[in-house]
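Dear Dr. H.,

I hope your travels went smoothly. While you were away I took the liberty of generating a structure for the chain from your last submission, since the lab meeting agenda had it listed for discussion. I wanted you to have the full record in hand beforehand rather than looking at slides cold. The sequence, exactly as received, is reproduced here:
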Amino acid sequence: LEYDGRFYNGRLILAGCGMKRANHLFSGLNADVAIVNNSIREENVPLKILGSDSRISIATTDKNFSSFYVFIESSRLNLNDVTQVQDSYRKKSNKSVMESPFSVNGKVIVDHILYDKYKFNNTHIDFNYTGNRVMINKINTSTLSGNVSGRGEVNLAGKKPFATSTLQFRNIKVQDFPFEKEEMKNRFFGFADGTINLTLDQEGPIAENIRGKIVFNITKGKVVNTGVQNGLILFLAELRYKLTDLEFNRIYGNIDI
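The corresponding predicted structure, in token form, is as follows:
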């Protein structure tokens, strides 16, 4: 690496770089990066993120190494692995995240994401990281045969992260929802649209500290085996079997999380 009083020129060689907390967050990063007049531009560098084949491109957007653009593509990410690791890590540490000396703008594209029992396909995220804040300027993904889009923010300044997000969902198939209780499965049908507002003020596991509200609208719906018919045995026996299933054009409501 050379410095002529104004610019740095040289090469940065990375060999077998990675980061591990119980499992590898990323690994197998090898690159020979040219630094030309305080500028870096390296494209399609292969690595593994959470064990999945990925590629990263990075470039400086100024001459002071204080602003970067990053583009990440990955075939598949299992977020259940990383959330379990993060939950365990936070129990051992109450330190805040160090403020970043540079800003990063970028885009992430992931073909398939698994979180809990939910599968997300063709996910696109535009983000900005400055100081201790990560701004999700735009997110778009497909799940449950529908589409989800929105934005969010993660504040890492304190001893625990604080996150907010606003999401819109369209054409979600209710029958594809992975209900926990067996008696709820294969009973509800329809197409759901609506909004989700979430906050995360985390001290423990992520799933236990999410709060928010869901406003929904379900059209072209059906409830199979409503249970209403069981109360009509003595009074309206002739309607008993007609009310086993219930179809509707539209219902709406909200759920507090």
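Two observations you may find useful: Residues 111 and 122 are 5 Å apart (CA to CA). The first strand starts at residue 2 and ends at 3.

With kind regards,
E. W.
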